[in-house]
Structures are given as structure tokens and as C-alpha cells.
């Protein structure tokens, strides 16, 4: 298996796990916080999808993000630049969206990722990133996007556990 195929498989696994862990959540569950300032599942899910959109568009496709290109920021009435990094925790209680709309955006992002990674020339994985002297595109895709997504998925699962929900084993 070549590196792009492995990356595509890894992204697909993350997407499948995310969908399984948010399926059937209502607004109360999606936006529940165990304490003030703690991220809720809704924020974490949005942030994972936004981060992937940003990474794939800026570094792989070299085009504007779906968030702006597809007018998703307007549909959600959110900042076109926002993707969660530096988000003020005081904003969490009012951070809301319909889950069905976020999942529609997520499916668009995930289809874009599958296409972008599926057609990625493996040599590009060695490309240095303009903002880092150490990282290459491979680091950004694996650590900056995939690992980052899995860490936040762990937070989602922690929140589910605090609510007493069991997940499949």
C-alpha cells in the first residue's frame, strides 16, 4: 500500500468513528458541558471538521476552504476565518448549530479529503511547509490533522462517558 492510500484509509477510519460517536445525539447532548469553559461535543466535532478542511485546502489543494468556497460560514452565520484555534471558552454556551447541517458540511469536507489524498503524488509528502523549518506535508497530514482529530475524538468519548453513555468495544 502506498502512503496516500494509507492516509486515505486513516482519514476514513477517523470519519467513521466520528459519525458513530455523534449519531443520534440531540442538542442537549451535543452541547452539554460538564463545567464552564469545557468544550462540548458540538464544538469538538465542528473544530475537527474545520481543521481538516483548512489543512486539506490550504496545504494539499492550495485553494480556498469549503467553509468559505461553499458558503458554509454564511449558512452557519459564523466567522469565515474561525476554525476553533484560539476560541474563547466564554463563547461555548452560545456556540450552536443544527447537527444535520454540520454533518452535511462534514460529508463535503470528507469527500474533498478522499479525492485530494487519493490523487496526491506521494512525492508531495516530502514538501516543506512554508511556516515551519521542520515539518513537511506528511507531518501536517499525520500529526497536524489525523492525530489532532483522534485526540479530540478522545475528548468526545470522555464527554460521552461522563454522561454515562457506553460505546462499542
What would you say this structure looks like, in words?
This protein has 169 residues and is mostly helical. It has one domain (3-162): dinb family like domain (Four Helix Bundle (Hemerythrin (Met), subunit A)), CATH 1.20.120. Helix content is 59%, strand content 0%. It contains 7 helices and no strands. Helix 1 (3-22) runs antiparallel to helix 6 and helix 3 runs parallel beside helix 6.
Brief overview, please?
Helix content is 59%, strand content 0%.
What does the oligomeric state look like here?
single chain
- What's the CATH superfamily, by name? dinb family like domain
- Stated plainly, the CATH topology is called Four Helix Bundle (Hemerythrin (Met), subunit A)
The end-to-end distance, rounded to whole angstroms, is 27 Å
Number of E-state strands = 0
Given helix and strand content, the structural type is mainly alpha
The helix/strand order is HHHHHHH
Main CATH class: Mainly Alpha
Question: Main beta sheet: strand number and arrangement?
Answer: none
Number of helices: 7
**Uncertain spans, ≥5 residues at pLDDT below 50?**
none
Relative strand content: under 5%
Radius of gyration: 16 Å
As for the number of domains, it is: 1
Shape: globular
| Helix content range | 55-70%
Query: Architecture, CATH level 2?
Result: Up-down Bundle
